[in-house]
Amino acid sequence: MADIMFAGIGGQGVLTAGKILIEIAAEHGKNVSWTSEYSAEMRGGIALCRVVVSDEEIGSPYPDYLDVLCCMNEDAYDKYVSDMREGGCVIINRSVFGEKQFPENVKVYGVDAMEIASELENQRGLNLVVLGAMIRATGMMDVNEFADTLEAYFNKKGKASDKNVQCFMMGYEKAEKMQ
Fold first, then answer.
1. Which PANTHER family did the record assign (predicted)?
2. Alpha-carbon distance values, 86 to 103, 106, 129, 138, 167 (Å)
């Protein structure tokens, strides 16, 4: 079981990242749960979603501690890193982070998500870059199976684009363990 949070600001695809993860995990036979919180602003306000992915029945969608925290911005990290479980995994969007001293009880992976999405001319793919980094950091699912299902996800939505899977794969390939 993995208790996961995606956190950032509205407009970064935080909620969509969680929805993509649960749809793909469910397609691969996992039990899933998704809850969201966001402020009233359409863009720029706080946004987060909690995702639980499990082989077993899910008891609560609101865990006491997180196994994985995906931070789209530094404020999200500052606010939620204290909710991490010992040995958990934090993924940060290094594009918007200053120098940080990370807690020793978690693994930290960084990816330059904004630069990658921009290079691939898919600014809305920031969340996909972070998803790729998360899959690399956690090994939660096979990267190729995830990529194939991600492509099918966008095809089903009528939003097929090679750039979406490219963002995901670049996030996977470029994620670096920082601690």
1. 2-OXOGLUTARATE SYNTHASE SUBUNIT KORC (PTHR42730)
2. 10, 6, 25, 14, 30
Distance CA 179, CA 163 (A): 29
Helix, strand, coil % in the chain, rounded to nearest 5: 45, 25, 30
- pTM, two decimals, is 0.93
Domains with residue ranges and CATH for the chain: 2-177 (3.40.920.10)
Q: How far apart, in Å, are the Cα atoms of 132 and each of 54, 64, 174? A: 19, 25, 9
The tens digit of pLDDT for each residue in 3-33 reads 999 999 988 999 999 999 999 999 999 999 9
Beta carbons of 60 and 71 less than 8 angstroms apart: no
Burial of residue 159 (number of CB atoms within 10 Å: 0-12, 13-18, 19+): exposed
